[in-house]
Specification:
This protein has 4 domains: 1-96, Orthogonal Bundle (Recoverin, domain 1), CATH 1.10.238; 110-201, Orthogonal Bundle (Recoverin, domain 1); 204-355, no CATH class; 409-477, no CATH class. The protein has 478 residues and is mostly helical.
């Protein structure tokens, strides 16, 4: 059935007038209906009314996206299609792009890649069975990518797509630092380096404004006390400020700025955790609460969870368990007298459970909660090995096995760098001699433990400054 995209002129009569969100007796707010409809799993839509339905639901698709949607929808003989099929397909289209459209997608963002850079990028991206790339995974990869150029006129759009928010002051500082070519382009890696610098540092004279923007108010004595604890080298590193502020015993927070304060401190809470925090905070008559009370309560919430909320907590992390898997997990967990489970115990149990599935888009959060730290290169390697299903999910045991493999092995070509980071320098002959001792797997990887064992047993006067001793090698390795 050939269906053309139609343009509809329609108006919606909203029953509620006057103040926003003010309900009128006997009426239902249209926005609430539309929000509920997006989550509704029943109902049918006439395919000829598709544009109108999407418009009313606040869903905007490009012509290409509409074309893809129409190709994928299972329309019956009466021109009807299930609403849940529409919503599932819209979600997939909005969250993913086809491998074939990668170049055009990046061009629309204002990012230009050479053919070699495009191939290099594809190697770093997880591609699902349908040949799709998740946009979040793509954006995360682009932040770490070392190639590509951007049009400076598209700077706002590019930063927005990358999920980077800058204040007007930060944007002004960024533009002044960028090495812009005559054709108005700048290397993407230079952009990301400068964004990192701007986002990570502030001028000491702007400390007050920075804290006020965060919603934190200090007295003059508290300000001077804070400055004493901060290393200042022209600029103050924001992370240092955040670390000191989290342990700072003074200062007050406006409760209306709590989201902003926690965000700037790098603290992420779920809606449920935020609700628990608000219920426990002693807010004064001016809507203020001491920073210390905020941090103490956040620490308690982040370190413990209610056993009854275990399923929801794991879902918020992007981990889904079956009922049997959840019961198995609970049997492994010590629960205190208040019905709470320590986060550390939960994360250890999850790693040992090795069952369930995870949302690949929550990878950073999941690894962080599991206490696993990976370098950018290791993250890229992990993402490139993840074969996500159509819903962007992977088996937890596959994720943990791949992560373990990446942490325990290095590329044979990186052996020199690995040894240099350990403080060991080899001659070319010694390097070749060591390689002959080491088993290299089918992926060209060497196990780090094997390297350590071989280095400890490697004899050579030149290697350890003239002392032909395996014990000296052991000391260096350690």
């Amino acid at each position: 059935m050939a269906i053309k995209r139609q343009n509809f002129n329609y108006s919606t009569s909203v029953a509620t007038r006057g103040k926003p969100n003010e309900p009128t007796k006997g009426k239902v707010n249209l926005k609430n209906i539309m929000n509920a409809m997006q989550n509704l799993r029943g109902g049918n839509v006439n395919i000829n009314n598709l544009d109108k339905v999407l418009g009313n639901l606040g869903i905007k698709l490009t012509d290409k996206e509409i074309e893809e949607l129409l190709c994928n929808l299972p329309v019956d003989a009466y021109g009807q299609v299930a609403l849940n099929d529409i919503m599932d397909n819209v979600k997939s289209i909005k969250e993913n792009i086809s491998v074939q459209n990668l170049d055009n997608f990046l061009k629309d963002m204002g990012i230009k890649l050479t053919e070699d850079e495009s191939h290099d990028l594809l190697k770093r991206l997880p591609i699902n069975a349908q040949g799709k790339i998740n946009k979040n995974a793509l954006m995360n990869a682009m932040k770490r990518f070392r190639g590509g150029n951007i049009d400076i006129n598209n700077l706002d759009k590019i930063l927005g797509n990358l999920g980077i928010k800058l204040t007007d002051r930060e944007m002004e500082e960024l533009v002044s630092k960028l090495p812009i070519d005559d054709d108005g382009t700048v290397a993407l890696n230079k952009l990301m380096e400068n964004v990192k610098t701007v986002k990570e540092n502030i001028d000491p004279q702007n400390l007050d404004n920075f804290l006020k923007d965060m919603g934190i108010t200090l007295s003059e004595d508290e300000r001077q006390d804070l400055l004493k604890h901060l290393p200042i080298d022209g600029k103050i590193n924001k992370k240092n400020i955040m670390d000191v502020v989290q342990n700072f015993r003074g200062g007050n927070v406006n409760i209306n700025n709590l989201d902003n304060v926690l965000g700037n401190l790098g603290i992420k809470l779920t809606d449920r955790e935020m609700e628990e925090l608000l219920n426990n905070l002693p807010v004064d008559a001016n809507g203020k609460v001491s920073l210390k009370k905020v941090m103490d309560n956040v620490k308690s919430i982040k370190e413990n969870i209610d056993a009854q909320n275990l399923d929801n907590f794991l879902k918020d992390m992007g981990i889904t368990l079956t009922e049997d898997e959840q019961q198995d997990l609970l049997r492994r967990l010590p629960i205190d007298a208040n019905g709470k489970v320590k986060m550390k115990n939960l994360m250890n149990a999850v790693q040992n459970l090795k069952r369930g599935t995870v949302d690949i888009n929550n990878l950073d959060q999941i690894l962080g909660n599991l206490g696993i730290k990976l370098t950018d290169g290791e993250i890229e390697e992990l993402m490139s090995n993840m074969a996500a299903d159509a819903n962007g999910r992977v088996e937890l045991n596959k994720l943990l096995d791949d992560m373990k493999y990446i942490k325990e092995n290095i590329d044979a070509q990186n052996l020199d760098n690995f040894l240099k980071e350990m403080g060991i320098t080899l001659t070319e002959d010694e390097h070749q001699d060591l390689l002959r001792c080491l088993p290299i797997d089918a992926k060209g990887k060497i196990n780090k433990k094997n390297i350590m064992d071989s280095v400890k047993n490697l004899h050579g006067c030149e290697l350890f400054g003239g002392r032909d001793s395996a014990s000296e090698g052991s000391k260096v390795a350690q």
